[in-house]
Design goal:
Largest sheet: 4 strands, antiparallel
Order of helices and strands: EHHHHEHEHHEH
Radius of gyration: 17 Å
Structural class: alpha+beta
Shape: globular
Length: 167
């Protein structure tokens, strides 16, 4: 795991996030899938708001607004982190997920918030650029996230019943 508070690295990640948001939101299939999940209320919005957001995300390219929001959040984070693996296979990806889970639990105990930044790893050319920002060479970035203190949550995001998500 590599963690940094370097301002120049944050600026480079900021640029990658802008490119990632632009790429993803320019893809109608991405917007449709995201809109579907928003419309299902998985992010905790009331039914009517979720349906309005679903329409907006599905039919409007919101990349500039999302990039601005993502970049403000990124630049306010004290720490950026990446968990990498020496091998890029499914077993390593699962192990990285387990490490991230433990980081989240430890951070929660300390009152630190964690937010994943997945768009920069979901696009192959951006993932390569992220790899160049990690001091250790010959590793594969698998999970990026930011760490910091945030306002306490007023309520938790509702969880879906296990039967709805278990295949």
């Amino acid at each position: 795991m590599h963690m940094t508070d370097d301002l120049e690295t944050k600026r480079k990640v900021y640029e990658l996030i802008i490119r990632g948001d632009a790429t993803q939101f320019s893809d109608p299939a991405f917007r449709e899938e995201l809109g579907y999940w928003i419309g299902q209320g998985v992010f905790g919005a009331p039914w009517l708001i979720a349906k309005i957001e679903q329409l907006a995300v599905t039919y409007m390219n919101m990349s500039k607004g999302q990039a601005k929001k993502d970049s403000e959040v990124l630049m306010s984070a004290p720490i950026l982190a990446a968990i990498s693996s020496e091998v890029n296979d499914r077993e390593s990806q699962v192990k990285v997920g387990q490490v991230f889970e433990r980081v989240c639990l430890a951070a929660t105990i300390l009152g630190i918030c964690v937010q994943p930044m997945s768009q920069i790893l979901e696009i192959p050319e951006l993932k390569t650029e992220v790899g160049k920002l990690i001091p250790k060479s010959d590793v594969f970035p698998q999970h990026t996230f930011r760490l910091g203190y945030a306002e306490p949550e007023k309520e938790h995001t509702p969880r879906r019943p296990l039967e709805e998500v278990l295949v």
